[in-house]
Design a protein that fits this description.
This protein has about 170 residues and is of the alpha+beta class. It is about 35% helix and about 15% strand. The chain contains 4 helices and 5 strands; from the N terminus they run αβββββααα. It has a 5-stranded antiparallel beta sheet. β2 and β3 form a beta hairpin. It is elongated and about 105 Å long. The chain starts with a helix and ends in a 12-residue tail after the last helix.
């Protein structure tokens, strides 16, 4: 066999080795994080629940999820150990690093728009006369006298064969 036919197999084996190596590295980091848990630390479980660590044993963790609520979890179910600032920000809504008020977005859009004064070009174009859009109201059009026979025919209801346009 030549080197050209073995090259795809060598590349495939190398890629598999690199993928398993990075997965093992991530697992080792997660295990180290779980081993560093101490009572009083804030944690997030893999299910998304936030709680405070009360006790840590070899395989389990006792969590305090609220007043009078203690839960026993496996260590593997802890998704992240949070810093005190991050835990307080998420659970209690306490912000330590507040930005200045200038960076805040207002609640309404009125402060985002320009002043209420119209521009110079807009005031000249508005001259307080209605804009003709090509449509005339019935009151503005002159009434045309209909012959008496047509007027009488318009007043009588028309007969239909049962079809209705109303829906």
């Amino acid at each position: 066999m030549s080197l050209v036919t073995l090259l795809p197999f060598i590349v495939l084996i190398g890629a598999m080795f690199l993928m398993t190596r990075s997965a093992k590295k991530k697992q080792q980091q997660a295990a180290d994080m779980r081993n560093q848990m101490q009572p009083g630390s804030g944690v997030r479980t893999i299910g998304g629940m936030y709680a405070t660590v009360k006790e840590v044993s070899d395989e389990t963790v006792l969590l305090d999820a609220g007043p009078g609520v203690e839960l026993l979890f496996a260590k593997n179910s802890i998704g992240a150990v949070l810093s005190d600032d991050e835990y307080n920000r998420i659970v209690h809504g306490i912000e330590h690093d507040l930005k200045s008020d200038a960076d805040l977005v207002p609640d309404d859009a009125s402060s985002l728009t320009a002043t209420d004064e119209p521009a110079a070009g807009a005031s000249a174009a508005s001259d307080d006369k209605p804009l003709d859009l090509g449509k005339k109201d019935a009151a503005e059009t002159p009434a045309v006298e209909k012959p008496a026979a047509e007027a009488k025919a318009d007043e009588e209801p028309k007969k239909t064969d049962g079809d209705s346009d109303a829906k």
